[in-house]
Amino acid sequence: MCDARVWERPRKAKGTNVVRLVGKSRSGTSPVEYDYAARFVAAMSPDPAMLMTFLFYTGLRPIEAFALRAEDVDVDKQWFVVRSSKTGQPRGVPLHSFLCGWLPALVERGGALFRTPRGEPYGIVQDGGGGLKTAIKGARKRSGINDVSPYTARHTVSTALVVAGVHPHIKDQILGHAADDMSRHYTNVPQAPLIEAINKLPAAAFEKLPWVSAPAEWFGKLAEGTGKRNDLKKNQKRA
Q1: 15 domain-assigned
Q2: I need a labelling partner for 174 at 20 to 30 A (CA). Which of 2, 11, 200, 204 fits?
C-alpha cells in the first residue's frame, strides 16, 4: 500500500552536555610512590608491616601472601613459589634483593611465612584484607594516609615496573597474569630476567624501617599508640 520506511539508528549529537558523575575511587585501585608507601608501612606494627612490605616488592595478591609458607621460599636463589594462586596453578616469583636481607628470619621460624602480632597465621579472606584489616585501619589513623590498602602494592609494583622499562611479558609473569603451560614447568627454577626486573623497584625508603636490620627481635611488638594487649604481654613474659 505504501513504500517501506527505512529506519536509522539515531546518532548521539556532538558536544552533548550529558555530565557523567564519577564517584570517589576505591582505596587500593591506584599506585603510589615508594616513599609515600614507606611512610604508611612505618605506622604499622612490625608483623603486618613485614607482610605489607613483601607485597610492595612482589606484587602478590594479599590472599597469595597469606598462604605462603617458609618452605616455599628460597632466599639464596632469590625465588619463591606461590602454590595457591587465583588461577589455581602454582607459579614462581622472583625475590627483590632487599627482601633477601630480612626474610631469612621469617623462613627460619618455619610454618606460615607471615603472622599476626599474636603469632597466628593471617586469615584468608577474599574481601576486606583478611587479617590485615585492623592493621590497615590503625596505620591510617596514625599516619593520616587513607588511600593505601593491601592491593595498592600490586598496582604500585605493576606501574613501577612499567616506568622502569620492564618488558610487558616479564611484568605479567611477575604479577601472575601470564602463566602458560611451559612457564609452569619452571615454577621452581629461578629465571634471571625476572630477578633482574624485580630489582628495579626502589628500596631506599623501605630500608629505613627500624625492624629491617633484625626482624626476629620485632616479632609480636606493637606500633606506638596501639591499644594494650595483655595476651602479648603474657607471651613476652613466657619467652
Answers
A1: no
A2: 204
Residue 3 has what DSSP assignment? P
Identify whether 1 is part of a domain.
no
Q: How many helices (H) and strands (E) does the chain have?
A: 11, 3
Q: Are 117 and 57 in contact (CB under 8 A)?
A: no
Structure confidence by residue, pLDDT tens digits, 155-172? 999 999 999 999 998 999
Q: At what angle do helices 34-42 and 150-163 cross, to 10 degrees?
A: 160
* Domain range for 88: 34-209
d(CA 139, CA 202): 22
CA angle, corner 163, sides to 158 and 168, nearest 5? Answer: 55
Whether 14 maps to a domain, the answer reads: no
The overall pTM is greater than 0.70: yes
pLDDT digits (tens, 9 = 90+) for 189-238: 789 999 999 999 999 999 999 999 999 999 999 987 555 544 444 455 55
- Kindly report the CATH number assigned to the domain that includes residue 100: 1.10.443.10
Closest C-alpha among 82, 78, 65, 84 to residue 104 = 78
C-alpha cell at 7: 529506519
The size of the chain, in residues, is 239
